[in-house]
Design brief:
Layout (H helix, E strand, L loop, with lengths): L2 E6 L7 H15 L7 E5 L14 E6 L8 H16 L6 E6 L7 E2 L2 E2 H7 L1
Parallel strand pairs: 1-2, 3-4
Antiparallel strand pairs: 1-3, 5-6
Length: 119
């Protein structure tokens, strides 16, 4: 169950088609079903980075069983996607990776670890 939280200072309306495009991208990157990808968008934040308030996206990407060796590849995919769809400079797409243990992620009133035991 990958989770993508995007915080940005973009003020224009960013609709569901863009959120769906992120879900599709993450599903392709992780080889997990798109229907299980959670995407949250937090627009219109005040963000200052590198002496500028130019458009920026901070992405917090959480996924179980994510290898650190994949982080650079994922970062490149996100940077390209946000540049292509929102015209954010690739150098202003910041990605934070999190790969918690299955015990620390809940779904369906239990944890992923417990769901895995039932499979």
């Amino acid at each position: 169950m990958p989770i993508v939280q995007v915080t940005t200072n973009i003020t224009r309306i960013i609709g569901a088609p863009f959120l769906k495009s992120i879900a599709a991208l993450v599903a392709e990157m992780t080889q997990k079903p798109e229907k299980g990808v959670v995407v949250m968008l937090n627009p219109q934040h005040q963000i200052w980075y590198n002496e500028s308030d130019a458009p920026l996206a901070h992405i917090r990407f959480t996924s179980l069983d994510m290898a650190a060796s994949d982080h650079a590849h994922y970062s490149s995919k996100f940077a390209n996607h946000f540049h292509e769809h929102l015209e954010i400079d690739k150098g202003r797409v910041v990605v934070e990776f999190n790969s918690p243990p299955a015990e620390n992620l809940g779904k369906d009133g239990t944890t992923i670890a417990e769901l895995r035991k039932q499979s």
